[in-house]
Write a structure and sequence with these properties.
Layout (H helix, E strand, L loop, with lengths): L1 E6 L3 H16 L3 E2 L8 E7 L3 H17 L6 E7 L2 H7 L5 E2 L8 H7 L3 E4 L6 E3 L44 H4 L1 H4 L10 E5 L1 E2 L10 H4 L4 E2 L2 H13 L4 E5 L17 H15 L4 E5 L8 H9 L6 E3 L7 H6 L6 H14 L4 E8 L6 H14 L3 E6 L17 H26 L3 E9 L5 E6 L4 E5 L9 E9 L3 E10 L6
Parallel strand pairs: 1-2, 1-3, 3-4, 4-5, 8-11, 11-12, 13-14, 14-15, 18-20
Antiparallel strand pairs: 6-7, 9-10, 16-17, 16-19, 17-18, 19-20
Length: 494
């Protein structure tokens, strides 16, 4: 039997999807790229953006109509607001949170679906309410003990009955079952490692604390073991994920290391391994960005010289309304230190235009900040109220037409600052990681250590996932083109 998952939203959702795939494939389901061929259809949703939620409703409408012709089971998980979750319970067969992922096999069986062939016997088992676990998955690692069958509702999610689950009373344990599931990596050379879940910052525009809960740090030993395993298997690009990665360990003071210490241990492992790989992290918060973090990145070759530092607004009054708990001068000090300690580092950011009450003057301050900090890349978004976030209760005072105009103006400013950086790359040689084939088969694509997009003439697809040296010959606003010089699978010193 086949399954298909539509993943929406950020890198964290993509990482979550990889663990969902592991659970389903342990049950015997087979991935298909064609959703019309799937017997099990799922969405990893994102309540943070309205467009992403609109896609969920559009897709489940199609899937539910398809049930008239085919026996299907549908599920949704990911970043989901309580209000959206209530609506989804009426539309999907299963609605579960990521900490409930180890229980998903039991949820599927309790819905009376015909399970895939047993991994041990090669026979198909009919899993109906009242039956135990099918053969072949009874010892699936990470699963909780099988609950009493009477505890299960006939439809919808374990979420309905797990509100009083004692695990949920202890944030330190809530994600353990999820983190112990090995992900089904979607790439053979790029991987995500979740190090933290949730956020305690409560920015007024953000719904994450309401979709993922409070901050929970993953044990550092598990993080380091997963990273070591990836590197030993030849992975070249690894990203540490969290809603606020640089507050890692603060929820476990005295029993867990800090984020700078975690980076230091990764750096030490990189030196000992003598393997070539780049480690990134996202997304940090300026409030928790310490000089120790920057010093550690500067110290180790495997810690990529690329920093994503969300600005959100260049105006102090807007930052205060956003509850960012830092001002522009604090942000400026961090950027100055980065430029001093890691002058070669690229700087990325996030900016929101049209936040509640943003005046023309305040928007101009964001323009000035973008020009001052000379970002290599900025992810600019139009403010959109999200149910659950504090600002959703405020009147949205900036007309949509003005928001769009400000988006276009800031994007134009970004094109100029980014073009300044890409022009400076011309004539220089850069180490790149080849990521795949371009739209035209005559080109291959890749990324520099600073995550600048590159392309070069080649039809050798076997270069994918390898490091190479490229001499940059031309530049555009956000990318560069170069000539292939040579290839090293690993560090040339080996």
């Amino acid at each position: 039997m086949n399954y298909y998952i539509l993943t929406l939203g950020c890198q964290m959702n993509k990482s979550d999807s990889e663990r969902v795939r592991t659970v389903l494939e342990k049950m015997g389901f087979t991935w298909t790229d064609k959703e019309e061929e799937a017997d099990l259809l799922g969405i990893i949703a994102c309540s943070v953006r309205q467009k992403a939620i609109d896609k969920v409703y559009s897709r489940i409408s199609i899937w539910n109509r398809r049930k008239n012709k085919k026996n299907l089971l549908t599920f949704v998980s990911g970043c989901i607001l309580p209000a959206d979750k209530i609506k989804f319970l009426k539309l999907f067969d299963l609605v579960f949170t990521m900490d409930e992922l180890p229980d998903v096999p039991d949820m599927i069986r309790q819905n009376g679906i015909v399970t895939p062939y047993s991994l041990e016997t090669g026979h198909q088992d009919k899993a109906l309410p009242g039956y135990g676990k099918p053969e072949g998955i009874k010892d699936f690692p990470g699963l909780l003990p099988e609950p009493q069958q009477a505890d299960y509702p006939k439809k919808h999610s374990f979420s309905v009955i797990q509100e009083e689950d004692p695990r949920k009373k202890d944030n330190r344990d809530i994600m353990d079952g999820f983190w112990h599931i090995s992900p089904h990596y979607s790439s053979s050379f790029e991987a995500f490692i979740p190090i933290q879940n949730g956020c305690d910052k409560f920015c007024t525009f953000c719904a994450v604390p309401y979709t993922r809960g409070r901050e929970v740090s993953r044990p550092s030993e598990e993080i380091l073991l997963e990273l070591e395993s990836l590197v030993n298997r030849g992975y070249k690009s690894i990203t540490l994920l969290g809603q606020n990665v640089n507050s890692y360990g603060l929820d476990r003071k005295g029993s867990e290391i800090s984020f700078p210490n975690l980076l230091d241990k990764i750096g030490q492992f990189g030196e000992k391994s003598e393997k070539e790989f780049w480690v990134y992290f996202t997304s940090p918060h300026p409030r928790d960005m310490t000089t120790d973090v920057i010093d550690t990145i500067a110290r180790y070759a495997c810690l990529a010289k690329q920093i994503h530092l969300p600005l959100q607004s260049g105006d102090d009054k807007v930052l205060k309304r956003m509850n960012r708990k830092h001002d522009l001068e604090k942000y400026r000090d961090i950027v100055r230190y980065i430029r001093k300690k890691i002058p070669e580092a690229t700087l990325f950011t996030d900016i929101i235009v049209g936040f509640n009450g943003e005046t023309k003057e305040q928007f101009m301050n964001s323009r000035k900040a973008l020009q001052e900090f000379m970002y290599n890349m900025a992810y600019i978004a139009i403010y959109s109220p999200r149910p659950g976030a504090v600002s959703s209760k405020w009147q949205d005072t900036v007309p949509h037409a003005i928001k769009k105009e400000r988006l276009h103006v800031l994007t134009s400013d970004l094109e100029k600052t980014s073009r300044h950086h890409t022009n400076e790359m011309v004539g220089k040689t850069y180490r790149i990681l080849v990521t795949g084939r371009g739209r035209k088969n005559k080109y291959m694509t890749g990324l520099t250590e600073g995550r600048i997009n590159v392309r070069f003439l080649s039809n050798d697809f076997s270069l994918t996932g390898k490091f190479t040296n490229l001499k940059i010959t031309a530049a555009t606003d956000f990318s560069v083109e170069g000539e292939l010089l040579n290839i090293f699978e690993t560090n040339p010193q080996e």
